[in-house]
Design brief:
single chain; about 210 residues; alpha/beta; Methyltransferase, Methionine Synthase (B12-binding Domains), Chain A, domain 1; Rossmann fold; 2 domains; five-stranded parallel sheet; 9 helices; about 55% helix; binds CO-5-methoxybenzimidazolylcobamide
Length: about 210
């Protein structure tokens, strides 16, 4: 079994300590951090989701897999972040209200930070008012990034996007993303930008500055 396959297996079975150790070993072997992330961990989480859908596993197993992935991302973080100086401005990020998924949002935050933004992470289940207040507290905010993983919280994503656009607060753009969101849905909600993954979210955020 390759190191990547071992990592995927450890994520799927929620073995946090093994994931940390295996990711360190993979990095020491010179494997590409993005390959470790995408083929080792993101793909493993997709498998976890499929098993959940088939009722082969339940919420507790999803939760331990998520914890294991977080452990792996922690080890990868210094390699992914790049260490550029933050000069592009502030980005406020959060998962919309009703939604507790944060792994994708955390990856988006990491990639946006590594592009050169200062990231203010409001966490998960973020109320519209919390986004508005954070922008008021940080009037130099350039990007507000909204994550949504559930079809049932897509209305919350739309409400948040519309409220931000109607807030009258100046100077920022709204980008949205998450598994159930498409370019067409993002456009329909009135978002300024959409991306399907974390790496392109950073590219979209940067493009919106000009
Ligand atoms: Co949940 N869950 N979950 N879950 N969970 C999904 C999303 C699901 C697809 C599983 C399934 O049925 N196959 C399903 C949603 C179905 C739907 O809505 N159509 C689901 C469900 C149903 C639920 C519950 C309702 C289960 C229940 O309680 N019965 C419940 C809801 C709780 C809530 O939020 N209110 C629930 C709970 C949980 C856990 C808490 C157990 C756990 C989350 C732990 C955590 O995040 N800390 C969990 C997990 C782990 C998953 C799966 C298995 C994995 C999610 C993940 O982390 N993926 C997921 C199945 C799946 O995704 N295949 C599932 C890895 C991550 C890197 O990908 O988050 O998609 P992702 O992020 C990507 C892109 O989407 C994008 O970039 C990221 C990286 O490239 N992206 C953006 C994300 N945000 C972006 C923002 C951007 C741009 C791109 O711009 C701002």
């Amino acid at each position: 079994m390759s190191k990547i396959e071992e990592i995927a297996k450890a994520v799927e079975s929620g073995k946090s300590n093994d994931v940390g150790r295996l990711v360190e070993a993979a990095l020491a072997e010179g494997l590409d951090p993005l390959r470790i992330l995408n083929e080792g961990m993101v793909d493993a989480m997709a498998t976890v989701g499929e098993k959940f859908q088939r009722s082969e596993i339940f919420v507790p197993e999803m939760l331990v897999a998520a914890r294991a992935m977080k452990k792996g991302v922690e080890v990868l973080k210094p390699k992914l972040a790049g260490g550029e100086v933050t000069t592009l401005g502030k980005c406020i990020i959060g998962t919309v209200h009703g939604d507790l998924h944060d792994i994708g949002k955390n990856l988006v935050a990491l990639m946006i930070e590594s592009t050169g933004f200062e990231v203010i992470d409001l966490g998960v289940d973020v109320a519209i008012d919390s986004f508005i207040n954070a922008i008021k507290d940080n009037p130099d905010t350039k990007i507000v990034a909204l994550s949504c993983l559930l079809t049932t919280t897509m209305p919350a994503l739309k409400e948040t996007t519309v409220a931000l656009k109607k807030s009258g607060l100046p100077g920022f753009k709204v980008i949205v993303g998450g598994a159930p969101i498409t370019e067409a849905i993002a456009k329909d909600m009135g978002a300024d930008g959409f991306s399907a993954d974390a790496a392109s979210a950073a590219v979209v955020a940067k493009k919106l500055l000009v």
